[in-house]
Specification:
The complex is a heterodimer. Chain A is an alpha+beta fold. Chain A contains 4 helices and 6 strands, in the order E-H-E-H-H-H-E-E-E-E. Chain A has one domain. The longest helix of chain A is centred in the middle third of the chain and has 19 residues. By secondary structure, chain B is of the alpha+beta class. Chain B has 2 domains: 78 residues, no CATH class; 231 residues, no CATH class. Chain B has 10 helices and 11 strands. In chain B, a hairpin with a 2-residue loop joins strand 4 and strand 5. Chain B is elongated and about 90 Å long. Chains A and B meet through helix 3, helix 4 and strand 5 of A and helix 1, helix 3 and helix 4 of B.
Chain lengths: 163, 324
């Protein structure tokens, strides 16, 4: 039986960029299990890689922010991704150059608040069309455990938990 | 590295192709990595080949290290194509819109407030800075607000401050003016749980400030209106402070002296009137008593109140105003 909820951990800036520039739409990786380490041993959920664990990502990101870790690989990765996204959105005309500059200035700033983790709690029932929940193919997952994606998650389809 | 595959494209389009290619290499299912241009798929393949060869990567079956090298090269090329941004200018503009991340403000605390804190000024300053940086809530006003004229760039922040003695826990409400990435803090009010200020029902920090003024403020008349809090009020010629008439009422069990601090963020309307925003007058004796009752006190506390002893005689009300 599939779980009632999907969990996705993202930095706060993801939420903000979606709100300000992407019409409240989000591309998310998510999991049916918040903490795979607490899953039944031997179950597929227990085989979700730490790098894909919502709790693992949440804890690591929170720790990196709390300690203001300038070498945080997670934050470096998010920075690179958002810079590419800003350039891509500028080139396809979905944002203007001021908005692109705002995204880049913010992600390159010294702010730690923007990287604080937020947990998206996605009730499956809020996603009317289940085909929008894509199971990630084995070769693209971090480990054997199942992972999912929603390409066009609307802000009305999830709740947010911040620490 | 110059990438010839991108010759003929303008810089923005080329940077977009590079960005989407890098996104695709790291996560091909990302919808943002989908091709946007008619020939982008083949351009992307040629791009990968060219970058791969220039980096000396022989196989197109990339290892994670190869991917990292290629996306770095693509990112560097994007960086080279697009003009660098003027980060301070962009951050200033975000501040003007009330969208700057709170931990990017350089906090400057007003002298008047520091004087009020006395020996506790260092610890209180730290508390204020933390309340801004790690705020529970924030609310910002922008220059277009109110349409009366230039509205000061006021920001409000609140932070719950827990104490091991629950009765000493409080919410710190901080107000300041933004100027680029500088935040000039002029007010910081502690609101204890057992105060009459109804924290729970305040939907915004402005509501909370109004409720605080309702409890600790005094009634005053300004521009023909009477109340304890005005979001905005404009006057001709005179300053807001000089235009305020305060009505003081003795209350049973209350000290028969007053020290009032008036808050008004000054600006001007388009027709040249003086405009006060967030105007209220706090009775510092009443507020100070609440602080004292919760164990907050300092050596300057009495000094600050003493000169106000004659105030009730109403010799010169304005002279005794000490707006932060």
């Amino acid at each position: 039986m599939s779980s009632l909820l999907l969990y996705s951990t993202n930095p706060w800036i993801t939420l903000e960029i979606g709100r300000k520039y992407r019409n409240n739409k989000y591309y998310v990786w998510c999991s049916e299990t918040y903490n795979p380490r607490r899953a039944q041993p031997g179950s597929s959920a227990a085989m979700i890689a730490p790098s894909s664990s919502p709790k693992g990502i949440f804890d690591n990101l929170a720790c990196d922010c709390e300690n203001e870790d300038v070498h945080s690989s997670l934050i470096k990765g998010y920075r690179r991704t958002y810079k590419r996204l800003a350039n891509s959105w500028l080139s396809d005309g979905s944002i203007d150059s001021n908005q692109r500059n705002e995204i880049i200035a913010t992600i390159q700033s010294q702010s730690w608040n923007i990287w604080k983790p937020v947990l998206f709690l996605i009730p499956r029932t809020s996603i009317i069309d289940p085909s929008r929940i894509h199971a990630v193919a084995a070769g693209k997952r971090a480990a054997y455990g199942p992972e999912f994606q929603v390409h066009d998650l609307d802000i009305s389809e999830f709740e947010i938990i911040e620490r | 590295m110059t990438i010839s595959v991108l010759d003929g494209f303008d810089k923005v389009t080329a940077a977009g192709i590079l960005a989407r290619a890098a996104l695709a290499l790291e996560d091909s299912s990302n919808p943002a990595a989908e091709v946007r241009l008619p020939e982008e798929s083949s351009i992307r393949n040629r791009l990968f080949d060219q970058v791969r060869h220039s980096l000396g990567i022989k196989s197109s079956a990339y290892t994670p290290t190869d991917v990292e090298k290629i996306v770095d090269a693509l990112d560097n090329e994007s960086e080279r194509l697009l003009d660098p941004i003027d980060q301070p200018k962009v951050l200033d503009s975000l501040s003007a819109k009330g969208q700057l991340p709170a931990d990017l403000y350089d906090v400057v605390i007003d002298e008047g407030l520091l004087e009020y804190f006395g020996k506790k000024s260092k610890s209180e300053s730290l508390l204020i800075e933390r309340a801004i940086k790690f705020r529970d809530a924030e609310q910002h006003f922008t220059q277009t607000y109110g349409e009366l004229g230039e509205f000061p760039l006021i920001s409000l922040f609140s932070k719950r401050v827990e104490n091991r003695f629950p009765a000493k826990s409080f919410t710190l409400l901080v107000a300041g003016l933004r100027n680029g990435t500088l935040l000039h803090v002029s007010q910081a009010w502690r609101i204890y749980d057992d105060s009459a200020v109804n924290l729970g029902s305040a939907e915004t920090l402005l509501d909370l400030l109004k409720r605080f003024a309702e409890v600790y403020g005094v009634v005053f008349t300004l521009s023909g209106r009477s109340g304890k809090f005005f979001l905005q009020s404009s006057v001709d010629g005179r300053s807001i402070e000089d235009s305020i008439d305060i009505e003081l009422k003795e209350e049973p069990g209350r000290e028969k002296r007053f020290k009032i601090v008036v808050s008004d963020y000054k600006s001007r309307t388009q027709d040249g009137k003086n405009l006060g925003s967030l105007v209220y007058a706090i009775d510092l004796i009443k507020y100070g008593s609440a602080l004292k009752a919760h164990g907050w006190d300092n050596e300057k506390f009495e000094d600050l109140h003493t000169p106000m002893g004659d105030w009730q005689k109403n010799t010169n009300l304005k002279k005794n105003f000490s707006p932060f």
